[in-house]
Batch of 3 targets.
Target 1
Amino acid sequence: MIVCNLKIYILSDKKGIGKTTSLQKWVKINPQLKGFLTPLVNGKRMFQIIETNDLIPMETKNKNLKIGRYIFDKNSFDKVEKIILKSLFEENSKTIIVDEIGPLEINKNKGFHDLVLKLINGRNFNSDLFFVVRESCLKNFIVKYKPTHFEILNLKEFNNRYLNKSQFT
């Protein structure tokens, strides 16, 4: 049995200010990071699997997972979730990044809702968790998922701690 020393970090700031871009820079200098990012590629949101750099379309024209003006592909969410859960048990998996959790999960119990529950409540793995949560969703994320032993960082704090400050001047 693995003893869990799980730490939870929450990167939370305003929408569209560079959270994913900073995470991409962090991933480039830290090969032990696992999980996924959500960059905008040719105007479309994608899941970028950190370990392989594969891109999986997040959006679809089918109406199987909708919130606001966005229509998401449930199959893509399921595929990414399986990759993340597999990563948890790899020996070199130190930190799992989940970019990002928002209204789809918090308000609708869809998207990565089940994954968040498994990650936060999981005690049989030894990876730190790094969630990206939009500032407007942060309070509801904490109330809903009840993480323990967590630390909240805004983008400036993240950049100062994990990236070379000179990259952002």
Target 2
Amino acid sequence: MSRSVRSVSGKVCFVTGAGSGIGRALALELAKRGARLALSDVSEAGLAETAQRARALGASVHTARLDVSDREAFFAYARAVVDELGVVHQLYNNAGVASSGTVLDSDWSEYQRVLSINMFGVIHGTQAFLPHLIASGAGHLVNISSLNGFMAQSGLSAYSASKFGVRGFTEALRAEVLEAGHPVGVSVVHPGGVRTSIARSALAHAKASGHAVTEQEEAQQRRYDEKLLRMPPEQAARIIVDGVEAGNPRILVGRDAVLVDAIVRLVPRRYPALVARVARRASR
């Protein structure tokens, strides 16, 4: 399939988590390239702002508040989008949350929260929309994993588990689609340090949940944002959509993602020690 055939122009593209960060940037990049949009988020205010900006770029936009962890709501929204727009060509399973805490200190409820959104949200979206992507005759499914989908870090067990899960689920799905000969491309995306609010939101959630957050942890979060989260989400979105239009099954976003992927492949037994060393330096 040529790149011109894969172009998003004129396609109906659904993006979850479109109210901020990479999701908003994806919606606006797709709008610039002539896509028709269906957008969702749990934040109605953020979603409304994204929709307004996308419409200013000339895109038609269908929106709805959606909690991706709610399976029945996801399937209902898939039916609503198809009823309204007639077809769906592309799905971007982007919605996600971050979490921090050691295995010993993390509550079970936190694992449930992160996995229900990051992992099961992707499964819900895929099962709800895949039949419609197949029916479109030119579908593409895009699941957003993370650099932590191939590299685990201390203090990120819930997040890493969810993003490794997204990677495995997507690769299994790709094999099934290829075996069945369905007209659907499947891509897994591994962003590196993108300048979004996901990490700050995790800290805010911890505070709201009653967990004591020290000044040292807040200072460490600020340093993490400044040192590691450098790529603008708009640049990440361009890389992702370029990868989709090129038909790439695996899309690495950022030099840090490319570098870490190479290190993990070259020295799989030693990389945890290297990651710990980098983490210590970043916390100084």
Target 3
Amino acid sequence: MSGPTQGFGPRGLRRGAALTLVFASVLATAAATGALPRDDEKGGDLKTRAVASTVDRATVAHAAAKALADGKSGTEAAEEVVSRSGDRWGAVYDEREYEEFEQALDGTYTGVGLAAKRSADGLVAVARVQRGGPADRAGIEPGDLLRTVDGRRMDRRPVSEVVALLRGDRTGAAAGSTVALGVQRGVTGRTRTLTLARARLTTETVTVRTLGAKQSGPDRSDSSAAVLIKVDSFTKGSGARIRRAVRNAPAGAGVLLDLRGNSGGLVSEAVVAASTFLDGGLVATYDVRGEQRALYAEPGGDTVRPLVVLVDGGTMSAAELLTGALQDRGRAVTVGSRTFGKGSVQMPSKLPGGSVAELTVGHYRTPAGRKVDGHGITPDLAVSSRALLRAETVLSGLGGGS
């Protein structure tokens, strides 16, 4: 959608990747530690205390304060320190960017409700349209070409730039502001100009569909059915939506949990997802400034329904945490290719001038003690093509049909 996106430069990569495993709220911290930290405990709240990292907060804060005193940008000075530090996933946001970042983790964004992609001939095309959003109401469809945005030609511009214009990132556009799109239906169609009002929208991070359903019998259930749950990222509420999808699945149906391309998100939501399939127990361990901590699933999950997890090189961070837990606990068969290998933990610190630094403070391991960062997770069944079909076959062999 015209929501959060990752740039291709080092700065954009760090900022996009920071979305993958961040304890961005007290809720996430509580889920990780089992207790809320007091402000006077070990230097203060986890969002603001100085923490040991590849670069510590004090160094970054000093650079920001000095730049401000010299009449320069504190954000840029802090970002320079972080970029030189070797903290691969560290990032610095100005106040507005961090607000957008937290809204993304909440599963909301300002935009028109469409996702863009590069077409086969190098133009910018609509990949999908969010139901009920401004673009949908205007009649825009997947496959339409975006030729102009506010009169500016979009041909062969980076998709990330087009998305930023749709959102109004450069102008600080709010919900209700308008954007004019030149939309072409097909390569030979005429271009029409549509003026859309941006809106606050909710990202669709979890989608569910039933495969091979042939309802029959008095309870209208069919063991040959399988439920495919596709999770794009772990934003607020994703775990509950996964749990609801499993509870509403037909009796006897297996579950295909598709985490391919999942960039991660809130750890607390990944733990809720793990709790859907586990009856309590360890989900992961992690360290913060050398202090070892653990994440545990809630008791009462569905431990009977057959489960296959699909992963690939785009499966990152919180999604890897979930995959590792289900694999190590013997709860799921994993199918696909080796995951990305991002197993570091970031925590936010507010800097002088209002910007926020996300600094790496530790790493997590799977229940069996496997290190994820730099290694990734190797699936039980390595598949290079037609992964979904192979996963359905595996699920059928487990008794989950499809």
